[in-house]
Amino acid sequence: DNCNVHLLAVLLYLCDNSDKICAKLQLFSRTFRKSIQKSLPLRKPINSNYMPLAPGSLLQGGKYRIIRFISSGGFGCTYEAVHTGLNGRMAIKEFFVQDICNRDDVTGRVSVGLQSKAQTFDKLREKFIREAQSVFALSHPGIVHVSDVFEENGTAYFVMDYIDGCSLADLVDKNGPMDEATALAYMRQVCAALDY
Question: How far is it, in rounded angstroms, from Cα 7 to Cα 16?
Answer without folding.
Answer: 16
